[in-house]
């Protein structure tokens, strides 16, 4: 089968987007980073001073918000109402606040609907927290990527450093562990491995090894 739906879920900084992007490229599929959508909404809410736990106000914000992905040389650019927020949505301020916004029902409903529309025709690799469980429960391929908190913090540290963002490793470890906790314990669509997902532990694997593993799973199952 061509046009598969490939769902890649897992905790913060497990390498989902790096790997998902490469898998999408190899399959000539569309790549959709759902975390970027939650980050974009968080960015807009902070910008417009919408209280991050006010479901009704966020719903109102979302009715007119235009989140657009555009392919770029180094991956993908994200625009909110025409403004390039690609770099802004990766800042610590957003990482700190995104889980609160992502726990609000109106935000989840609106973004889930958008994601399901994008995946309707298949041929897509989508990464997030609830893709295999809620967004695309019938996805042909479901991967759950994990890695130790230490390793994930180290990866984010190197990424941030390369981008010129100043961070402290132990702060990152705390932030990642806290975000995992918030994402796994929320009421609606918490971060949890789908029953039919295949777990891949990336702690001691290179990006290429993880990509190869996932490609193997895709080929075996289809
Ligand atoms: O993947 P990333 O770390 O960019 O995701 C940012 C945040 O967005 C997560 O910590 C989570 O709170 C939220 N998220 C979500 N459901 C998704 C993707 C992301 O709740 N499918």
TrEMBL record:
Q: Which HAMAP family match?
A: Cytidyl_kinase_type1
This chain belongs to the protein called Cytidylate kinase
- Chief subcellular location: cytoplasm
Pfam families xref list:
Cytidylate_kin
An example GO CC term for this entry is: cytosol
Family, according to the entry, reads as follows: Belongs to the cytidylate kinase family. Type 1 subfamily.
Q: Where does ATP bind?
A: 10-18
Q: Where is the Cytidylate kinase domain?
A: 6-219
- Record's subcellular location: Cytoplasm
| Catalytically driven reaction(s) | CMP + ATP = CDP + ADP; dCMP + ATP = dCDP + ADP
- Cross-referenced SUPFAM superfamilies, in alphabetical order? P-loop containing nucleoside triphosphate hydrolases
Looking up InterPro entries in the UniProt record yields: Cytidylate_kin, Cytidylate_kinase_dom, P-loop_NTPase
Instruction: Extract the GO molecular function terms from the UniProt entry.
Output: ATP binding; CMP kinase activity; dCMP kinase activity
Which source organism does the UniProt entry give?
A: Liquorilactobacillus ghanensis DSM 18630
Could you state one GO biological process linked to this protein?
A: pyrimidine nucleotide metabolic process
Entry EC no(s): 2.7.4.25
Q: What class of enzyme is it?
A: transferase
């Amino acid at each position: 089968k061509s046009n598969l739906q490939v769902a890649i879920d897992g905790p913060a900084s497990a390498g989902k987007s790096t790997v998902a992007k490469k898998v999408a490229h190899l399959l000539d599929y569309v790549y959709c980073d759902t975390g970027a959508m939650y980050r974009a909404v968080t960015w807009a809410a902070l910008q417009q001073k919408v209280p991050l736990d006010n479901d009704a106000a966020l719903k109102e914000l979302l009715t007119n918000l235009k989140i657009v992905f555009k392919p770029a040389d180094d991956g993908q650019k994200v625009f909110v109402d025409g403004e390039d927020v690609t770099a802004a949505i990766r800042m610590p301020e957003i990482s700190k606040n995104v889980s609160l916004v992502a726990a609000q029902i109106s935000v989840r409903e609106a973004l889930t609907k958008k994601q399901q529309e994008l995946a309707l025709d298949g041929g897509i690799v989508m990464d997030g927290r609830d893709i295999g469980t809620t967004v695309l429960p019938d996805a042909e391929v479901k991967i759950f990527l994990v890695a130790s908190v230490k390793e994930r913090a180290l990866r984010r540290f190197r990424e941030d450093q390369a981008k010129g963002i100043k961070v402290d490793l132990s702060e990152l470890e705390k932030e990642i562990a806290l975000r995992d906790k918030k994402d796994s314990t929320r009421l609606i669509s918490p971060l949890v491995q789908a029953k039919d997902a295949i777990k891949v532990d990336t702690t001691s694997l290179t990006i290429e090894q993880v990509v190869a593993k996932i490609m193997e799973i895709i080929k075996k199952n289809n």
